[in-house]
Design a protein that fits this description.
The complex is a heterodimer of chains A (193) and B (531). With 193 residues, chain A is of the alpha/beta class. Chain A has helices at 15-28, 77-82, 109-117, 127-133, 140-152, 157-168, 173-191, and strands spanning 2-10, 32-36, 47-55, 69-74, 87-96, 122-125. Chain A has a single domain (2-99, 118-191), classed as Pyruvate-ferredoxin oxidoreductase, PFOR, domain III (Pyruvate-ferredoxin Oxidoreductase, domain 3), CATH 3.40.920. A 6-stranded mixed β-sheet of chain A has the order 2-3-1-4-5-6. In chain A, strand 4 (69-74), helix 2 (77-82) and strand 5 (87-96) form a beta-alpha-beta unit. With 531 residues, chain B is of the alpha/beta class. In chain B, 41% of the residues lie in helices and 17% in strands. In chain B, helix 18 links the parallel strand 15 and strand 16. The chains are: A alpha/beta (193), B alpha/beta (531). The interface between A and B is large, with 51 and 51 residues.
Chain lengths: 193, 531
């Protein structure tokens, strides 16, 4: 079994924390993993992505081929579309619905939403509002991970929860619980669909 | 020690520490920066007191590493590919002197120019200097090869290159880590490294005499191996470094492939592959180094495909997709590119001092009929993009000052240079001395954010020394001006810029305010310490 995931967003939105948690869960589960990251110049408010590959078998390429991504997990709706060519025909896009506009030529928001909704499988949510509602305004990325959890499949929701606890352990119980709450809110939003 | 999830850079770093490293010498540069950072933070490296402080530039790094090797210890020098240009003099001549303690030169190439101004291939440099190269195909090999590279360096008494590319440097995978070796004892060489012509001629002959041994090592290397398939088409694929992964991704076991991860080119294996097949395809990330060598080896009549023939793209990093096309594998179904899409280039952080510098420069210079700002390498290169569009050039580390000087020498006015604090100490100081000696009519802006910002906030070699350096180089102290780049100071900054542009001679303006990224980090650390 294998799962190919693209994590994306705008530099500074916290996609690497999501990658760290999935990486921790995958390592504990004994899965093979390769995770290509973007460092350097693009981190300054530009588009960023990470190719995350999980498998029970050998993983060769660090990069996911075109049309082979099972899940695109995006902190930003336009960024979710940037990797459309890489999405498998039966793949899923899990994305924040709230645009991050730091460029003058950002596309029309209603057309952008319409294009996202035209995809066979897409889950959209205002993750920042949900994070606020559960009292963890900085936990939007955990809400997103929760939304994506049922689609990651190769790792269970419980395994991801455990990984959150491990990754945030050094920041104390309060931070762990706040992130678990945000994650759970994400999970239940997808389940209620 | 078990398995660890490591970036390629981190695998290199821990591989070096466990191979008995005594010092890493480097200047930050994407995608190599994380190697030195890992060593700086590693508990064993700290316990052993392994040298890991940042150097002023790649040349000082290379020379210091050579000095540590002279004293018998194992040294690693790390840089991005263009750093090889900066240290080339020391690098090429280190192959002539030879080494004592193991010396590994880590070059991190950046095909596709994710964070660079070109995609030069460091394997050319190794070929030029006539030394061996290791090119890992994955993180595990990056770890394993470090010990092998040090050992080969000490047995040949020559520096050895380890070449990685961005996709390996910045990709994570599990790595099986062994037990750390002890460092070498201090053992200063008695050999003469004085490269006067008489000595250098003798040593050059010695270097050439070592070539068959290097070739033998590559031919026998476990990193170079051939896989055969009875059912595959009669095309022999030569896959260098991470290109091997793409070949395996798209062809699985159904391919005749020679994996190459150690150079000089294992010519016997290449010839054998050519004999067993009807054509060769060379897949290599970077420039067609091996493709050219293979063409020469097999002769004009034998078909060799690759980047030069257009079977693979001439530029940019390889992908599983372009390798699939070259291997004649049909692409699966995929979505079209999205319609509602716009580019999102990186930009200067909100509140960044460089922003105020460009706002002020643009305001003042708009008052001149024509002007040019010569830029340099760092975050502030983003001043070339909207909304500022302030820069006319950015070529290499330090070129802002010397290009502004050359344009001024030609009679152009106003000729302004913008350079960051770390770039100035890296390669700007000598150019400033030239300008002072020539009394060139230029204005140099050293935009000082107290760090090496672009690569993530490493120490900057000249912090707190800039005024003294400029005055020491001969700039009139009355024309070394310091301002604080904040919107509220705009009237003062623009006045100072105007005055210094109008001053006929070399003037330096130092806008100084901490980088927003390091400021936030320092505030976070302060909050944590309070708790």
């Amino acid at each position: 079994m294998k799962k190919d995931i693209i994590l994306c967003g705008v530099g500074g939105q916290g996609i690497l924390s999501i990658a760290t948690i999935i990486g921790e869960a995958a390592t504990k589960a004994g899965l093979n993993l390769k995770q290509a990251e973007v460092h350097g110049m693009s981190q300054r408010g530009g588009d960023v992505q990470s190719n995350l590959r999980l498998s029970t078998d050998t993983i060769w390429s660090d990069l996911i081929p075109l049309g082979k991504t099972d899940v695109v997990i995006s902190m930003e709706p336009m960024e979710a579309l940037r990797y459309l060519e890489y999405l498998a025909p039966d793949g899923t896009v899990v994305t924040s619905s709230k645009p991050f506009v730091n460029i003058p030529n950002y596309p029309d928001e209603s057309q952008l939403k319409a294009e996202l909704e035209s995809l066979p499988s897409v889950v959209m949510l205002d993750i920042e509002s949900v994070a606020m509602e559960v009292g963890n305004p900085r936990g939007a990325n955990m809400v997103l991970l929760g939304m994506a959890a049922p689609y990651i499949g190769i790792l269970s929701v419980e395994q991801l929860r455990d990984a959150i606890a491990v990754v945030f352990a050094r920041k104390g119980d309060e931070v762990v619980n706040a992130n678990l709450k945000a994650f759970d809110a994400g999970v239940s939003s997808t389940k209620s669909k | 020690m078990g398995k660890k999830l490591l970036l390629g850079d981190e695998a290199v770093a821990i591989g070096a520490i466990y191979a008995g490293l005594s010092g890493v010498y480097a200047y930050p540069g994407t995608p190599s920066t994380e190697i030195t950072e890992f060593i700086q933070n590693n508990p064993l490296a700290k316990e052993r007191g392994i040298h890991s402080r940042w150097c002023t530039n790649e040349k000082t790094a290379m020379e210091a590493a050579l000095g540590m090797s002279y004293a018998g210890k194992r040294a690693l020098v790390c840089m991005k590919h263009v750093g090889m240009n900066v240290c080339a003099d020391a690098f090429v001549n280190s192959a002539i002197t030879g080494v004592n303690g193991g010396l590994v030169v880590l070059a991190a190439d950046d095909p596709s120019m994710h964070s660079s101004q070109n995609e030069q291939d460091s394997r050319f440099y190794a070929d030029f200097a006539m030394i061996p190269v290791f090119e890992p195909s994955n993180q595990q090999e990056a770890y394993d090869m470090m010990a092998d590279a040090f050992q080969l360096s000490e047995s040949l008494k020559e520096p050895v290159m380890l070449r990685i590319v961005t996709r390996l440097a910045h990709s994570r995978a599990a790595v099986e880590v062994g037990e750390p070796k002890a460092e070498n004892p201090l053992n200063v060489t008695r050999d003469s490294w004085v490269l006067l012509p008489g000595n250098a001629r003798r040593k050059y002959v010695e270097l050439i005499a070592k070539q068959p041994e290097m070739k033998k090592a590559a031919d026998a290397s476990l990193y170079n191996r051939c896989e055969k398939s009875a059912t595959a088409p009669r095309i022999g694929v030569i896959a260098c470094g991470i290109a091997y992964n793409y070949v395996k991704e798209v062809a699985g076991d159904d391919v005749n492939v020679l994996k190459i991860s150690q150079y000089p080119l294992p010519e016997d294996q290449v010839m054998k592959l050519a004999q067993e097949n009807d054509a060769l395809l060379v897949a290599e990330d970077g420039q067609p180094v091996v493709e050219k060598a293979v063409k020469a080896l097999v002769g004009a009549g034998y078909p060799v495909r690759g980047r030069l023939t257009g079977d693979l793209p001439r530029t940019g990093e390889l992908t599983p997709d372009c390798v699939a096309i070259a291997l004649g594998k049909p692409a699966g179904p995929s979505f079209e590119k999205a319609k509602n899409m716009a580019g999102r280039p990186p930009q200067l952080c909100q509140g960044c001092g460089h922003r105020d510098v460009y706002a002020a420069l643009n305001e003042v210079l708009a008052g001149y009929p024509d002007y040019r700002i010569f830029g340099d390498i760092g975050c502030y290169t983003l001043g070339a993009l909207p909304p500022f569009r302030a820069l006319s050039s950015c070529v290499d580390m330090g070129a802002s000052i010397t290009m502004a000087k050359g344009a001024a020498d030609a009679g152009f006015f106003p000729s302004v240079a913008v350079i960051g604090d770390s770039t100035f100490t890296h390669s700007g100081m000598t150019g400033l001395l030239d300008a002072v000696n020539d009394k060139s009519n230029i204005t140099v802006v050293i935009s000082d954010n107290l760090t090496t910002g672009m690569t993530g906030g490493q120490d900057s070699a000249g912090t707190n020394k800039y005024e003294a350096i400029c005055v020491g180089l001969g700039v009139d102290p009355a024309h070394v001006r310091v301002v604080v780049p904040l919107p509220k100071n705009m009237p003062e900054i623009t006045r100072v810029i105007k005055e210094e542009i109008e001053y006929e001679g070399v003037s330096v303006i130092i806008p100084r305010r901490e980088c927003m990224q390091t400021l936030q980090r320092h505030l976070r650390e302060a909050r944590k310490n309070k708790k």
